């Protein structure tokens, strides 16, 4: 089975082959790919879902491990898994874009800390939005929908025929523009109020040149931004649900066409 006179159990080899697509999807997905999730848990979930896939689908792994065709099949499986997780990662970038727009207008763009999801530094407001989007994603059973799409992908994109076509790769690229659109719409209520405030402060500075713009504009922007966030957050939460629906719909379109 392995080549070079070595052998492996067929069931174990089939499970390892199936886990490639599942593991790639979990690595790229927002919740499952978090650095706070232990690697052992991620591998265990991949193995458990792999057993489910083998029980519901007839998977024929490549006959030999050390072969060029096998490496190409593994690359195709990893590509499909990464594509499904990457679509969700694109949607989860929308709150970070919104936080950059709002934080820059409020004057708190410099406030950043380590994001526990990816281990990198990100704006504090963006972390707040990302946590809320993650909680909405889990409350809407988005993680279960992702697992369901991964299992269904073995029937729609069976191993050996799993290379994504040009139309599906093009759809992924165009969905990347949705992150900028969603981030702009998410920041629109608060950003519009802050823009109006900046216009008022600008007219005040022109009418009274002796007025210190920084001593008046920065506290006013911060206060208006906090109040606007408190008022507009229910509407922003509703639009975050739309973002989750759109991302899961894009994953379904990628898998089922």
Report on this model:
- By secondary structure, the chain is an all-alpha fold.
- The chain has helices at 10-28, 39-56, 68-91, 94-106, 124-139, 142-156, 166-207, 213-256; strands at 112-114, 121-123.
- It has one domain.
- The model has no long low-confidence stretch (mean pLDDT 79).
Produce the secondary structure layout.
Layout: H1 10-28, H2 39-56, H3 68-91, H4 94-106, E1 112-114, E2 121-123, H5 124-139, H6 142-156, H7 166-207, H8 213-256
Antiparallel strand pairs: 1-2
Helix pairs in contact: 1-2, 1-3, 3-7, 3-8, 4-5, 4-7, 4-8, 5-8, 6-8, 7-8
InterPro entries: FliR, T3SS_IM_R
Function: Role in flagellar biosynthesis.
Family: Belongs to the FliR/MopE/SpaR family.
Summarize the structure.
By secondary structure, this protein is an all-alpha fold. The protein is built from 8 helices and 2 strands. Helix content is 74%, strand content 2%.
- In whole angstroms, the N-to-C terminal distance is 34 Å
Number of strands: 2
Structural class, judged by helices and strands? mainly alpha
Number of domains: 1
Oligomeric composition of the shown chains: single chain
- Indicate the percent of residues in helices: over 70%
Tell me the series of helices and strands, N- to C-terminal: HHHHEEHHHH
| Count of DSSP-assigned helices | 8
Beta content: under 5%
Q: How would you write the strand order of the largest sheet?
A: 1-2
Name the average pLDDT: 79
Overall 3D form: elongated
Describe the sheet with the most strands. Answer: 2 strands, antiparallel
The unreliable regions are: none
Task: State Rg.
Answer: 23 Å
């Amino acid at each position: 089975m392995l080549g070079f006179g070595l052998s492996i159990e067929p069931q174990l080899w089939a499970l390892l082959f199936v886990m490639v697509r599942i593991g790639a999807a979990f690595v790229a997905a927002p919740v499952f790919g978090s650095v706070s999730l232990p690697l052992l848990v991620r591998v265990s979930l991949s193995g458990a879902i792999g057993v489910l896939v083998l029980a519901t689908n007839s998977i024929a792994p490549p006959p030999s491990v050390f072969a060029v065709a096998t490496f190409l099949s593994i690359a195709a499986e990893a590509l499909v898994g990464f594509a499904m997780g990457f679509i969700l990662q694109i949607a989860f970038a929308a709150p970070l874009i919104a936080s950059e727009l709002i934080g820059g207008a409020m004057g708190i763009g410099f406030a950043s800390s380590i994001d526990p999801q990816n281990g990198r530094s990100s704006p504090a407001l963006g972390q707040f939005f990302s946590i809320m989007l993650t909680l909405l994603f889990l409350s809407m059973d988005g993680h279960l929908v992702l697992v369901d799409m991964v299992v269904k992908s073995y029937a729609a994109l069976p191993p050996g025929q799993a290379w994504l076509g040009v139309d599906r790769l093009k759809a992924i690229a165009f969905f990347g523009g949705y992150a900028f659109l969603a981030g702009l719409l998410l920041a629109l209520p608060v950003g519009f109020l802050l823009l109006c405030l900046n216009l008022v402060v600008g007219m005040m500075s022109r009418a009274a040149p002796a007025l210190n713009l920084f001593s008046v504009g920065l506290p006013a922007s911060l206060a208006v931004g906090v109040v606007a966030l408190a008022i507009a957050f229910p509407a922003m939460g509703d639009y975050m649900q739309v973002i989750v629906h759109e991302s899961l719909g894009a994953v379904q379109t990628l898998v089922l066409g």
